[in-house]
Fold these 3 entries.
Entry 1:
Amino acid sequence: MTDGEAPEVSGANLHWRALEGLYASAPINHKFRSSLEIVGEGLSRITFLIEPDCFHAAGAAHGTIYFKMLDDAAFYAANTLVTDRFLLTTSFNLHFSKPIKGGRVVAEGRWVSGRRRVLVAESWLLDEEGEEVGRGTGTFMRSRIALSGLPGYTASKVS
């Protein structure tokens, strides 16, 4: 692409933008300062601002926040490969490596395997210094829920 040229609009790009809209429209995501970016097939990045209302009694992010960030990043990385159905998390393993004391955290997700019924994706969390603070692996399966019927998923044409 050169200066002044419009970005390519393909079925994949429409699907990715629609997934970003789906994330933004989910009621749970209105409770967090976060945004999703699909960066390519099988790749996602979610930026979160972790504030004290997410802390446990000892002053760091509660484990539910780690799970939310890791699951979302892996889920959306996997759902880039499925254009017709919403995926469901069937299992998720996570590992905490450092407390999050607040600030900007980036969750990155990457599809690992599977394309038909079950998909596997991994994700990791990076704090403001770029240090990994958590990692996870999830298994996701196709549901009967059509993406096109979900509020927020607004791709007019997906290949």
Entry 2:
Amino acid sequence: MTLTEPAVRHTDRARAVLHRVATDERRHRQRQRALVWLGTAVLGIALLLFWQFGLGLLVNPRYVSDPATVLARIGELLAGGELLAHLSVTLGEAGAGFLIGVVAGLVSAVALTSSRRGYEVFEPFLVAFYSIPKIALAPLFILWFGLGTTPKIVMAALLVYFIVLVNTATGLRGVQPGLFRVCRVFGASRRDLLVKVTLPAAVPAVVASIRITFTRAIEGAVLSEFVASTQGLGYLVARASRAFDIATVFAGIVVIAAVVMVANGLLRALESRLLPWHGGRVHG
């Protein structure tokens, strides 16, 4: 069956319209991306200028180091190998705590939401425990687990666990009950409901929470290193602070911030590729 000439012209016009719309949408996304990069660059330059010329007006200049000095100090630490050694320790602790917290949070969320009232029973205790300042727990973990990497991993896992738990449980409980009833009518088992309905519905919240919790894992590891440690970026900053080595203090802070920004950017790019329709709203 061949198309008539009017039908062919109509099809060509439709294709042209679709091509034009797709091109306009692609150009719009590129413009928006360029604006975001431009805004980020302008803000970064403004912060550097404020750091260079304005921060000393707000605090004692003796306790402020300028960006050039900090950059030179980072170069010295890199050349001596000290910075990479401390960075590898912190990333190892944060990575282990991150994996433990994600797995524990996912398993706990599935277990608590498998019963109708399970999560509601535990929620007040979860909220109460999450409200405890984590800096108050760090000395206890060090007393319980020693000065090695274990208390840092536990602290990192703890910060990750609650965010993953709450967001996964919210996603799991957000499925409409009517959808479950329809699936049961068509013969879906409990396993089918979990694997094919509940978990896919929770994926956006899970992925978004995983993205932000890696930064929390680094925060937990560094926080424990501040309290008591012999290695890691937190130890580097705390040691320099006690010695009034302001350049090293700022160097450690800059490196921690840079690691968090890079990790967050990589995870955000992964999230955008896996879930381009999701806005990434999370609790915690």
Entry 3:
Amino acid sequence: MKSALQKSPIPESKAYLARTLNEPVFDPHWHFHSEYQLFLVLNGSGTRFIGDSVKPYKAGDITFTGPNLPHLWRSEHAHEQEQNIAWSEGVVIYFHENFLGDNLLQTDEAIRLRQVFHKSLRGIEFTNKTAETLQQLMLELIQMDGFEGILHLLKILDFISQTKEYAILASPGYTNTLREADTQRMFSVYAYVMKNFKRKIALAELADLTNMTPTSFSRYFKIHANKSFSEFVSEIRIGHACKLLIEQKMNVSQACYQSGFQTLSNFNKQFKAITNRTPLAYKKEYEVY
């Protein structure tokens, strides 16, 4: 297990780091770090965890996460990681808040940048035309170095500070209460649920996994995930159902039972609570594109 809080990926001689990822899976470890991070998925799919947000991810997704916000991208092909097949491709940009010095952010000219940095503490996902433009800008940065790269990164930050095409990910009440031992424990829980969510998971199973009583585990999970364990499992199942409806083109009934739900009525209720639309409306929305 990797350390939850790792050494800065940015060399001391650099203002930022931009690189491509071409790996079997994205780093699947539940972790956080002191850098801001812009992340673009070029290839791959799975489930993305940012703070208390749980959503499926796909090619084209772009997120911006602030310092010390726990996150992981769990690939659908995580079990094939050791085969060294490049299922996952992306672009990641790291930088510190003070990469331009300590004073610029305090100026009137930087007010929008301060605002977007504050929003990133809960995680931001960019959508629609903004995501398309931002993808191109990020790919261009990979080809640059020196001061040209710094100017281009500023262009990216100015662009995202002005757009309105975004969604905030973690809930307003979310705060990172994790210690390193907690990240390892929560990662074990996430991995277990991702492997077993298509069947009924007894609370006692997770209690045994984490060496707790069922009551203690429920309390522990609620504190660190900002939601109940049953709510978390429902989010995983609905995220999987979304992919089945769109990518596998399953009908609503098939997606329901393939995602671990026992009744169609409960599936419809949970789906609407989490996505704010019915499964059929969700499917039709994506069929337009």
